[in-house]
Every structure is written in C-alpha cells, then in structure tokens.
Design goal:
Keywords: Coiled coil. The longest helix is centred in the middle third of the chain and has 86 residues. This protein has a 4-stranded mixed sheet with strand order 1-3-4-2. About 55% of the residues lie in helices and about 5% in strands. Strand 3 and strand 4 form a beta hairpin.
Length: about 350
Amino acid sequence: MDASEEPRKCPARGSCPVFLAMSSGTVRYTPSGVGPVPERNFREETWDANSQPQQDEGLSVGLSAIPVPWKNLGPSKGNRESSGDLVEASTSWEKAQGEEHPAPAPLDVSRLRSSSMEIREKGSEFLKEELYKAQKELKLKDEECERLCKVRAQLEQELEELTASLFEEAHKMVREANMKQATSEKQLKEAWGKVDTTLFAEFQAWRASPTLDKNCPFLERVYREDVGPCLDFTVQELSALVRTAVEDNTLTIEPVASQTLPAVKVPTVECNNTNTCALSGLARTCHHRIRLGDSDSHYYISPSSRARITAVCNFFTYIRYIQQGLVRQDAEPMFWEIMRLRKGMSLAKLGFFPQEA
C-alpha cells in the first residue's frame, strides 16, 4: 500500500476535547433505553475526512441513527479545560432536555379523595334543596287543589239551592196564577149571573148595527139610567146645552188661563167667575172652563161638574170607536168595557171623582 493511499488520521486527534474526554474515561455515552455501555479501550483509528463515522462495536443501532454534526473547536489549551467544557456542555444538554420534557408530578390521592367527597357533599346538599323545593311546591299545589275543591263544592251546593228555590218560586207563581185565574173565572160567572140578560141582548143587537140614535133600546136605557142623571145640573138651560154639545162632540174643556198670560184679543163673554160653578151655582174654586161649539162664551165649572161631564164624554167616545170599527173585540170584552164606563158615570153622579179633576 502506498503512502499516498494510507488513510488520513484526524487532524485534531491530539487536541479534540471529545476524543480526550472519551480517552480519559471522563465522559461515557449511553443511548436512551440501553443499559450501561461496557468499558473498552479506545484505540486509535485512521480517519478519513471523506468517510462517514463508523459504528462502534457493542453499541446499539440507535446510536448510529443519530447524526452528530462535527465542528472544529480549534486548538485546546489542555485536557482539563476540554473536559470541563465537555462536562458543562453535557450538563447544559441534560438541563435543556429536562426543561423541554418535564417529569410528571406524582398524583395526590388524598387530595383527590377529599375533592371527590366535597363534590358528593355539595351534590347531596343541592339535591336535598331541590327535593325540599319540590315537596314544598307539591304541598302548595295540594292545598290549592283542596281549596278549589271546597269552592267547587260550595258553588255546587249554592247552585242546587238556587235551582231548588227557583223551581219552588216558579211553582208558587204558577199556583198563584192558577188560583187567580180560578177566582177570576168564578167572579166572571158570578157577574154573568148578576147581569141582566136583557141588557146584554140589547147590547148585542146594537153591536150588530151600531148607531148613535138614542131611540134604540140599548142607548135609550143608557140615556135614561146614566147619561141623563149625570148631566142633570141645577142650571137646567145650560145643562141642556151641555148635553147637546156632548152628543155632537162639540164641547171643549180647558184649564183656566194663568193671570200672567197676555189678555186674549178676541172679545169673550165670561159667564160667572172663577169662584162660582156655572152649572151647579155653588161657590167653588173653578180650575176649568167649558166652551160650547163655536161660541165665544166660556163657563167656569167646578171639579165635580168637570168629572161628570168627562165621564159622559168617555162613554160617547168609546161607542163612536165601535161605530167606526176601530174596536175589534168580541162582544163580551166590549160589553164589560161599556159597563165600566157606565160605572164611572154613576160614581161621578154620586160625587166620587179623582182629586186631579
């Protein structure tokens, strides 16, 4: 082998701190996951600048998988300084590895147990509070339901009592109505028993052909028994004029005008005065006066005389309505209405009249 072909040795062989540290045994490299590396003597080997580092015998494969950059550190002052630098570098590397991958802290079991018990206690207290609230709400709802049930029962009882009272009142009203109807029918039968059948027959004959002729049997009886006596006043001449005006429907009754009203421009003849009745001749306070036909003469009359004249006028007004066909009823209601009007004439003739007259 030529001298030119002999492999070149490491130029820093005598001054390389890594070499010196490994030669003196100060630094030993043990890969991760591998046991302690057995000591062996480092021999000098030839080194080629162009060759790759070779794997040491007895080392694991993982060491060769880690590329290590080679850097020329320059000439070293001594083995001791180089060893110190290498130890410092190794320590710095281990510290950096410790900071990068901190060791997990051990678990505190007692603290975890106390935390778990505290969570359980708090959960238990929360559940108890919720349960208490739910029980309280249920109690309130039960009380409300009980109160509503009582109110419902009371309303039902009141409704039953009201219904019973209404039915009782209705039956009472029906019973009273039936009794009144029976009494009315009885009175009607009694009245029909007292009525002169001849008078009713005369009314039916007049109703068949109603007329104002006082010579017919029906009106002739009414004139003789009611109209004549009712209009028979003390002053006979004025009484005859009043009867004629009532039959002809030309009599006017008006209240006495107030003294504060303006005087009437039309000349009128005042017969008698307000303190004397023109028909009876008695000293009475007169609140009304009559006028016969188109005459301008006025006659002051007392309340009694006015009531008698009014009763006769009401009778003639009703029979005129029957004659004109304005009253459409059966014979019996008409007859009883005429009897009521005749009763009014009889009472007025006897001096019974309303106070407003």
